[in-house]
Amino acid sequence: MKAEIIAVGSELLTPDRMDTNSLFLTAQLNRLGIEVTRKTVASDDFNSLRDAFAGAMDRVELIIASGGLGPTEDDRTREAVADLLGRKLTRSDAVMGAIEERFRRLGRAMSEKNARQAMVPEGATVLENARGTAPGLWLETGGRIVILLPGPPHELKAMFSAQVESRIARLSTGVRLVARELRVAGMGESDVDQRIAPIYTRHSNVQTTILAAPGEIQIHLRTWTSDVPAAEQLLQQIQESIVLALGESVFTVAGESMEEVVARELTLHHATIATAESCTGGLLAERLTRISGSSAYFLGGVVSYSNALKSAWVDVPAEIIETRGAVSAEVAVALADGIRRRTGATLGVGITGVAGPTGGTPEKPVGTVHVAIADASGSKERGVSYPGERDRIRWQASQTALDLVRRYFLYAAQPKPGAKG
Amino acid sequence: MKAEIIAVGSELLTPDRMDTNSLFLTAQLNRLGIEVTRKTVASDDFNSLRDAFAGAMDRVELIIASGGLGPTEDDRTREAVADLLGRKLTRSDAVMGAIEERFRRLGRAMSEKNARQAMVPEGATVLENARGTAPGLWLETGGRIVILLPGPPHELKAMFSAQVESRIARLSTGVRLVARELRVAGMGESDVDQRIAPIYTRHSNVQTTILAAPGEIQIHLRTWTSDVPAAEQLLQQIQESIVLALGESVFTVAGESMEEVVARELTLHHATIATAESCTGGLLAERLTRISGSSAYFLGGVVSYSNALKSAWVDVPAEIIETRGAVSAEVAVALADGIRRRTGATLGVGITGVAGPTGGTPEKPVGTVHVAIADASGSKERGVSYPGERDRIRWQASQTALDLVRRYFLYAAQPKPGAKG
To answer: Is B189 helix (H, G, I), strand (E, B) or coil?
Structure first.
């Protein structure tokens, strides 16, 4: 079965706001074996809306729309769809009662306008809204299903999970999407593609997409199937071949973020970590502490922007800063080792660099970054040069630091004599 | 003039990727006086693509598409549009030469496939691609203009600015968009709406949108006009009325981020700042250092996750932690004052709280946060309770901290006797 998603709302046609509901809806529909073949963002204009629904109904069996169910005169999704399907709108006493009850519970006066939300097209199934006043609607007509959901994401998600998912599952044809996501750090997109193209081009029934995100390359494998076990086995086999081709640059085969992977390794090895950052300004600590439960392994960190604080807080010798410069391999190592000693953590991480756009020199241009990790027995440093803007340079520097930590545990767990770091 | 935007690419119909080019294109078109009335994400399928362009050409005079101009067989935008317009595709020697030249310059071998990118529909104007191999195309037919741009954002943006913008400006009808964006911190969406509805409802020719983002409410004022000075004056007047109604909760009338506003205040007042964070894990320091040139005012920060480091790094007395708890007003003030003393900054900021999802207690549930600022003469503390998930709680805590800093300078600049803090 194929579906289209329509996001309704003139505010979604400005530079300031975008439709994100469709990502959630696509993930849910894919899981139910339904492919999304088009997405439309339509304005609140009645004729434009009606035209958007008419087009979608010409093309697919399932149309899911979000937004335009509110109480104001701008909210015209109900009217446009009812008009298109030739259904009368009548006031539902049950819906009206539910809206009144909600306002009573919140102790607020109901506005006249909210009565509009009780208008239901003939023959429609009302989908109760546990988190707001606008009910959803489920309409069937000539082999087509049209589902209207409220725009606010928390209302839409709750309604989909509680009332739409099981209804759609019942219609399901048995075709399912089987997908994997591998992520790679420390390699470029074309390099990844060159190494794995011989693998994925052998499987034309598996859709392979390679996406470049800051600091990582994502490899998506997707296949639609009615034989899930066979598809799982095929993807497993492709996944193993890719891991063989790319080696330890693959940091997840389950679509995890780098910080999730690092959090797991730290936990598994009962290790603790502390950070000393300069150009990343706290981003590394912030990423490490995004993970719930991070207080088990993250002891603390410093952002030592000034040279004086690099010495005062993590004992970076002033003469190293003077002779090698604040952005140098030596300072990165001193930061990593200093924060480790100060906190007693298993691992210390240090980052120093030029995030730009100012501050670059001919020897150390914008994008020059040094990252180091240190444990009780030594340190490892990596000097890199990133292209791009300030935020991208900072992100990539934090990614390289996390990747150094990940690779550290790779060897801690499975020592390989003679392997390159 | 009205426009539609078509984003081409099956990967944009998965849960993993979304079209962001349309935000840039919308901003540019709006500036040129062109309203975007629909956005479509279409798959790479030939018929589906052709149908998407046909629909758009029925509705508007200007269609801008991104993507599907690459060298692979999946890239079919050229063919679909040529077929729809009844134009033959012929190989352009000029384009072929440019592609060959690019590969020579990069020292790489050109693939056979790249020859596809030299295919140009009859009568089309070729738009040179300074940053990639896929040229753009400008087609005119029966009063309609179709512009095809490459998908990679840095290629699309460069091509639009260099070659599309001036061409579109020449077609312009003189109608322009005049817009303002105000942002508000420390108030809820419905509270903002209630106070300003009497203002904006008086001006039906100005489109007002109120959007809730984490930690702030955004008020967008937009109006299409052929008399820009009059519209500017009207928006100025509405803006002033809104600022009067909402007071100092308005932190920008120019769509700036909170960290940009705080950076400006710190710079204006020649002040320096340092941070001591617990639950936000470095997010506050990271936001302060997003701004280029932040080393002028940001001295440094600590992320003291453990209680021991709160005492060792910023001298929070252990007995305060013991008697009041790590999450308390007293500890927030001690963090702020301690980091100020340790760094010699004008202002110290402290944050402590329970970001969740675990760690909450009946007295201090998830979402409980204490934020404080301190200068040489005293401190100010704010205890808050945020709803939502870990990342939202952390963001709102950092926003409240930045807002405290902003309000500090509000009074520093314009002392108002008896004003409430």
So the answer is: helix
**Reported pTM:** 0.86
Strand (E) or helix (H) holding A89? strand A89-91
Which strand ranges, in their side-by-side order, compose the sheet holding B216-225?
Answer: B207-213, B216-225, B176-184, B250-252
For the stretch B251-298, pLDDT in tens is 999 999 999 999 999 999 999 999 999 999 999 999 999 999 999 999
pLDDT of residue B175: 86
Looking at A60-159, list the stretches that DSSP marks H as alpha helix, in order from N- to C-terminal side: 77-85, 93-106, 153-159
Q: Which among B14, B26, B181 has CB closest to A26? A: B14
Write out the H or E segment, with its range, that includes residue A295.
Answer: none
Question: If pLDDT is split at 50, 70 and 90, which confidence band does B113 have?
Answer: confident
DSSP-derived 3-state class of residue B279: coil
Compute the nearest-CA separation of B221 from chain A (Å): 11
Short-list A66, A1, A62, A60, CA closest to A35: A1
**Is B181's CB within 8 Å of A16's CB?**
yes
CB contact under 8 A, B15 and A37: no
ipTM for the assembly? 0.84
DSSP state of B160: I
Query: Taking residues B376-399, what's their average pLDDT?
Result: 94
CA proximity to B314, closest of B325, B301, B323: B301
Which residue from A35, A281, A298 is facing B289, i.e. has the nearest CB? Answer: A281
Q: Which of chain A's residues have a Cβ under 8 Å away from the Cβ of B181?
A: 16
From the list B14, B209, B284, the residue facing A220 with the nearest CB is B14
Which residues in B lie closer than 8 A to residue A275 (C-beta atoms)? 303
* Inter-residue contact B71 to B133 (CB < 8 Å): yes
Query: Distance from CA of residue B401 to its chain's centroid?
Result: 20
Q: Do β-strands A216-225 and A176-184 pair in parallel, antiparallel, or remain unpaired?
A: antiparallel
- What does the pLDDT look like over A99-108, one tens digit per residue? 888 888 877 7
pLDDT value at residue B399? 98
| Average pLDDT of span B176-187 | 93
State the pLDDT at residue B131. Answer: 83
Q: What pLDDT was estimated at residue A327?
A: 96
How confident is the model at residue B60, as a pLDDT? 97
Residue A106 burial (C-beta neighbours within 10 Å; 0-12, 13-18, 19+): exposed
Does the distance separating the beta carbons of A293 and B281 come in below 8 Å? no
Mean pLDDT, chain A, as a whole number?
A: 92
Indicate if the pLDDT at residue B356 is higher than 60: yes
Cβ within 8 Å, pair B285-A300? no
Sequence-distant (6+) residues with CB within 8 A of A253 are A180, A181, A182, A239, A243
Spans of chain A, pLDDT less than 50: 414-421
Residue A202 CB neighbour total at 10 angstroms: 10
> Which residue on chain B is closest to A19 by alpha carbon?
B18
* Burial class (CB within 10 angstroms; exposed 0-12, middle 13-18, buried 19+) of A125: middle
Residue B286 has its nearest CB partner, among A14, A282, A306, at A282
Q: Do A280 and B286 touch (CB under 8 A)?
A: yes
Question: What is the reported pLDDT for A420?
Answer: 42
Distance from CA of A407 to the nearest CA of B (A): 23
Q: Hey, are the CB atoms on A304 and B309 less than 8 Å from each other?
A: no
